[in-house]
Amino acid sequence: MPVSKSINPDHAETELTMHHTTRRFNRRFLARSATALCFLAAAIAPAAAERIANPIAEFSGLDKITGRITTFDVYMDETVQFGALQVTPRVCYSRTDDEAPKTDSFVEVDEITLNRKIQRIFSGWVFKDSPGLNAIEHPVYDVWLKDCKQKSDVAAPEGK
Q1: pTM, entire model
Q2: Angle (CA) 146 147 151, round 5°
Q3: Looking at 1-10, 80-89, 96-105, which range is the least confident one?
Q4: What is residue 138's DSSP assignment?
């Protein structure tokens, strides 16, 4: 036997009003929560650091036989020979003075072997603050990034 349910029109209207009020509250709550999460994420996440592309990379090299350390500047896409190594920086980035210092460079290093062949021994990123992280090591020479610069005492190659 089907059960018939009597509906009080006042009760139905009240129920409908409560339903709309609850939906409006949920929407407002979700919108405010989403806005708060966006502000929180913006506050927690560090702003993108402005990278400065520099035309000169400054390196230091250690000759392990003599114990002598040499500092040398290299312009981007130019090659400088240090002992049996040829060092070629492709990019050198630093940050503005008001940001945490992060200096890095993409470098290619070739070795001139005893039979006068050129062999690539390193291609990758080097970091001023962590020279051992991705070190350019060789049995006789070590090379590391000291800085990225805008100016040098070394004359620029022709065409630069």
Answers
A1: 0.67
A2: 130
A3: 1-10
A4: -
